[in-house]
Design goal:
InterPro entries: PGF_CTERM, S_layer-rel_Mac. Pfam families: PGF-CTERM, S-layer. Keywords: Membrane, Signal, Transmembrane, Transmembrane helix. It is a single chain. The protein is mostly beta strands. It folds into three domains: about 1-20 and about 375-390; about 30-100 and about 250-315, Immunoglobulin-like (Sandwich); about 105-115 and about 135-240 and about 330-360, DU1608 C-terminal domain (Tick-borne Encephalitis virus Glycoprotein, domain 1), CATH 2.60.98.40. It has helices spanning about 1-20, 40-45, 370-390; strands at about 25-30, 35, 50-55, 65, 70, 75-80, 90, 95-100, 100-110, 115-120, 125-130, 135-150, 155-160, 165-170, 175-185, 185-195, 200-205, 215-230, 235-245, 250, 260-265, 270-275, 280, 285-290, 290-295, 305-315. Strands 9, 10, 11, 12, 17, 18, 19 and 20 form an eight-stranded antiparallel β-sheet that branches. Helix 1 packs antiparallel against helix 3. The longest helix has 20 residues, at about 1-20.
């Protein structure tokens, strides 16, 4: 009996270890203020002003706010328009607005041309306007980083969303590096960047015909240092900014975002309202649009209580039913200490590729840690063997 109990206990330990090793995703609710009153108009009168109740990032954590730059882009308003009564909001009574703002690069070096860029926040995602002054053509921001990355010649750095940069060659003096930019393994652009004093260490990739716009900056890379040695040639990058230009979108007036289906573009501001009446159904979660909901309490008809909220998935892979392009893999900081080599090869870099180079699969910078679940599993297995032998 003791032997059976010992084996069962050890087996239970193993099951517990491997079960805990699996990553579980949790959905959390990010909510705004709770509004309480007898009806919609009473709530607007109590909490709002000038016949409007407006929520911004100071009240709703789901809205974009940059505390360093004190920048916010979004508001959600409920207006006392005709047809608003009881728990019904009239046509045009829900107004979502997001406006282009200037934010600093993570790699903030104004003297090197890294000061700020235009950004607009939509659907809890950062977007870059293709035209800095108009909010109708947008591309998702893939990366804005000031981490250090070291890449060897022939090695690719995965930037996410299928984009990568490769260090093709370093010159004999260790002063220049030839970089290549690819999307899904296909060549996009390349450049030789010099790091000698007084040179521009930043490479900007400009492309044409991005949603009918030309000279669109889609990638910025700042090369910090270059090392040339007998064995390894290495480029050190500090400062990367990238947009998903291949999936840029144009917002049209007939686009719909849930129950917000009246779209207007006024220069730098995108405004979306409801064309039909909107009912705050009691004891329900009512979707507004843009990934936002109102949670309405189960109250008597004489009372109305609700709050806005969004849901976020943490602790695992984010799954968005409305978008399939949210799986963004950002490079992990793989900065390493590099001693400057003393030996130099004799090969000089060329100004571009002369022969077709073999393409290597991108190597994503890996910051993962060992599988502690497996280690603990082996400990449990050894415990089984020990207990069985002890009881024989």
């Amino acid at each position: 009996m003791k032997r059976f109990a010992a084996v069962s206990l050890a087996a239970l330990m193993l099951l517990t270890v491997f079960a805990s090793a699996a990553s579980a995703a949790d959905v959390i609710e990010i909510r705004g203020p709770v509004y309480n009153g007898s009806d919609i108009n009473n709530i607007i009168d109590t909490y709002g002003e000038n016949n409007a109740l407006t929520i911004d990032a100071t009240k709703f954590a789901a809205f974009y706010y940059d505390i360093d730059d004190n920048v916010t882009t979004e508001t959600l308003s409920i207006l006392a328009v005709p047809g608003t009564e009881g728990n019904v909001i009239g046509e045009g009574g829900i107004v979502y607005e997001t406006t282009i703002q200037q934010v600093d690069y993570e790699f903030y070096r104004p003297a090197a041309g890294w000061s700020n860029y235009s950004l607009v926040y939509k659907r809890q995602e950062k977007y870059i306007p293709i035209n800095p002054d108009k909010a109708d053509k947008l591309a998702k921001l893939v990366l804005d980083s000031d981490d250090k990355y070291t890449i060897r010649t022939g090695e690719q750095l995965d930037l996410g969303e299928g984009y990568a940069i490769e260090a093709k060659q370093v010159d004999v003096d260790g002063e220049k590096v030839w970089l290549e930019f690819t999307k899904d393994g296909e060549f996009v652009d390349d450049e030789i960047i010099s790091v000698v004093s007084g040179s521009d260490n930043t490479w900007e990739v400009e492309l044409d015909d991005i949603q009918d716009e030309d000279d669109v900056v889609v990638l910025r890379v700042h090369v910090n240092q270059v090392f040339q040695g007998a064995v390894d040639s290495i480029a050190q990058i500090k400062g990367i900014w990238l947009i998903d230009y291949a999936n840029a979108m144009k917002i049209e007036s007939d686009d719909e975002f849930g129950d917000l289906d009246n779209v207007k573009i006024n220069g730098a501001t995108l405004t979306i309202t409801n064309e039909d009446t909107f009912t705050l159904t009691r004891d329900d979660e009512v979707e507004i649009g843009q990934g936002m909901f109102f949670k309405v309490a189960d109250t008597a008809a004489s009372d109305l209580r609700y709050y806005p909220f969004v849901e976020k998935t943490i602790g695992g892979e984010v799954v968005d039913d409305d978008e399939d392009d949210d799986n963004v893999t950002e490079p992990v900081d793989n900065d390493t200490e590099v001693e400057e080599p003393t030996e130099e090869p004799t090969e000089e870099p060329t100004e571009g590729p002369t022969t077709e180079e073999p393409t290597e699969e991108p190597t994503e910078a890996d910051g993962s840690t060992p599988g502690f679940g497996v280690v603990l599993g082996l400990v449990g297995l050894l415990a089984v063997v020990y207990l069985v032998r002890r009881n024989n």
